[in-house]
Task: structure prediction
Amino acid sequence: MPAPIPVFPLQGALLLPGARMPLNIFEPRYLAMVDDALAGHRTIGMIQPKVPEQAVADDHPPLHDLGCAGRIVSFEETGDGRYLVGLRGLCRFGVAEELALHNGYRRVRPDYDPWAGDFGPQDSAGIDRDALAGALKAYLAARQLGADWDAIDKTATGELIAIVAMVCPFSPLEKQALLQCPSLTGRAELIISMLTMDSAGAPAPDRIN
Result:
C-alpha cells in the first residue's frame, strides 16, 4: 500500500474495503488530485472532515482519525471538465500525520497496520441475514421506497452490508461508526440497530459513542 496518499475529505461519504464508490470530481484541487493519482499509484484516501468542508482552497477542517484507501478502477472525463471516477475500497487507515498541501489538495501519512485484516476474507457466518433483510424492508417501507428484492436476495451478505452502509442516508457520525466497526458482524448489528430505530422514527442518541 502506498504512502503518503492524497485524501478527499467528504462529509457523509463512506467507502468500505471491497466496495465501489462513484465520485463526481469538479473542484480544481481535486481534479489535480485525480491527475496525480492516475500518474502514480492510483490510490485516494476517502475520509470525513469533522465539520463540512468549504469550497475554498485554504479551508482545512479537522479530519477524523480513520479513513479508507481506494484504488481508481474507472475514469471518464466529461465534456464540461468533470471527472467521473470509480473507486474500489482497499484498506482502512489511521492518520499518522497530515502533510503539506500538494497542488492544493491534502495528503496524509497512513497507518494501515491495524487494518491489515481488510485484505482477507470477511466472515459473515454469524450474521442474522433475516434480521438484516427485515430491518431493511421496514426502513424502506417507512419511507415509501421500493427495492428489487430478487436482486437483494442474490447479493452476498458482505456486499449487501456494504451497499446498505454506503447508500443509506445515515448521519456523518453514524457513517464513521460503521467505518470503525472492527468486524463485519459488528457492522451488520449496528446497521440493523440504525435501520430499526430510524424506521420507528425515534432518536437514538446513545447508539453512537
Remarks:
- Residues 202-209 have pLDDT under 50 and may be disordered.
- Strands lie at 5-9, 20-25, 43-47, 66-77, 83-102, 105-111.
- The first strand starts at residue 5 and ends at 9.
- The first helix runs from residue 28 to 39.
